[in-house]
Amino acid sequence: MATILRVRTLAGGKTMRELDVAVLCRDQLHVIECKTGRFQKDELENGVGQDEFNKLSTIKREIAGPFSTVALANPRLPDTHPARYFNDLKERAAKQEIMLWVGNAMREDIEIFLRHLTLK
Question: Cα 108 from chain centroid?
């Protein structure tokens, strides 16, 4: 398992993005993006988690492949935001095949995911 994997551009070598958790299991890449803070006001107005979704969607499509797992984990959601933002987040996650692990259930969801990986 790798944590804080830096992704560099080919031109310039600048660090553009980093992956919080990357797990390679049975030749399949799984990526978890962790967001522990509250979303900022502009994120709420322009789509909660849109940057994270774009990043995860691109990773799934161009690097990890269709059988990979990509997930957004946030222990504070949904308690810290109005329901309409959280419902929008859930809808967009489902459309983009991004798992959403949040709130009190987050730990259990991650444990189930890890058990599933080891049972394959």
Answer: 16
The encoded tokens of residue 40 equal 């900022």
Size (the chain), residues = 120
Give the chain's mean pLDDT: 76
Identify the CA nearest to 33 among candidates 14, 19, 54.
Answer: 19
> Residue 72 in contact with residue 101, Cβ under 8 Å?
yes
Residue entry with tokens 């269709």:
66
Instruction: CATH number for 2-119: choose from 3.90.320.10, 2.60.40.1080, 3.40.50.1110, 3.40.1350.10.
Output: 3.40.1350.10
**Cα end-to-end span (Å), the chain:** 17
The two beta strands, 2-8 and 28-34, are unpaired
CB 49 within 8 A of CB 35: yes
Beta bridge partners of 98: none
Q: What are the pLDDT digits (tens) for 42-55? A: 565 555 567 778 88
Q: Which two tokens stand for residue 79?
A: 């308690």
